[in-house]
């Protein structure tokens, strides 16, 4: 089995929160129009609070042909509202949360 990895210079997306509406917005996306079939995508976000920004990021990835089971979210801190939102919107999504030593599978939708 051959694995190909893309660096963050090749594939990335950046977002922020609109100060008036408080909704997440994407201001830079270098994502491909379509990911190759069978691609696994890691989404790294240090802190999941409400889940709004990560939902936008995952929606962008899913629009490009990646299934929930192929997306892995890695974070340092995950608040319950974010985990609930991810679980409800993206069944079978894996969320890995940092703990004292290593990573722990936090939740699966």
From TrEMBL:
Keyword Zinc: no
Keyword match GTP-binding: yes
GO CC annotations, alphabetized: cytoplasm
Domain Phosphoribosyltransferase: 17-96
Entry-linked InterPro entries: PRTase-like, PRTase_dom, UPRTase/APRTase
Source organism per UniProt: Capsicum annuum (Capsicum pepper)
Record-listed E.C. numbers: 2.4.2.9
A GO molecular-function descriptor: GTP binding
Keywords assigned: Allosteric enzyme, Glycosyltransferase, GTP-binding, Nucleotide-binding, Transferase
Protein name: uracil phosphoribosyltransferase
């Amino acid at each position: 089995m051959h694995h190909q990895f893309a660096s963050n210079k090749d594939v990335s997306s950046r977002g922020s929160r609109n100060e008036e509406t408080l909704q997440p917005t994407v201001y830079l996306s270098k994502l491909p129009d379509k990911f190759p079939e069978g691609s696994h995508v890691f989404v790294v976000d240090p802190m999941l609070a409400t889940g709004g920004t990560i939902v936008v990021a995952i929606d962008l990835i899913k629009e490009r042909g990646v299934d929930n089971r192929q997306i892995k979210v890695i974070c340092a801190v995950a608040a319950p509202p974010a985990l609930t939102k991810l679980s409800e919107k993206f069944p079978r999504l894996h969320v890995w949360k940092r703990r004292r030593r290593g990573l722990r599978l936090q939740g699966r939708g």
